Amino acid sequence: MKKIAILSIVFVGLAFAACKKERECECTETTSNNVPGSISNTDPVVKYEIREIKGSEAKTWCQKSTVVTTTGTFVSTVVDDCKLK
Fold first, then answer.
1. Distance between the two ends of the chain, CA-based, in angstroms?
2. Mean per-residue pLDDT for 58-81?
3. Which pick of 2, 57, 66, 84 has the fewest CB atoms within 10 Å?
């Protein structure tokens, strides 16, 4: 009987450890372009709530990304530097 109780407790503990949780992703966005005289713009920290997702999936979703857009000679770069909290 003790073995069954201990195994039940271990199983419940593992189930909670692997469950999907609510997580928070904090991102800082920096925008820059190649227009002479322009300056880079850094937005304040933006927080995103990630719900019903596993930790490994959250890490994949919340990471640093860079998007470069070119229109003629105009080049705009947006960098999102994100960290999982």
1. 41
2. 92
3. 2
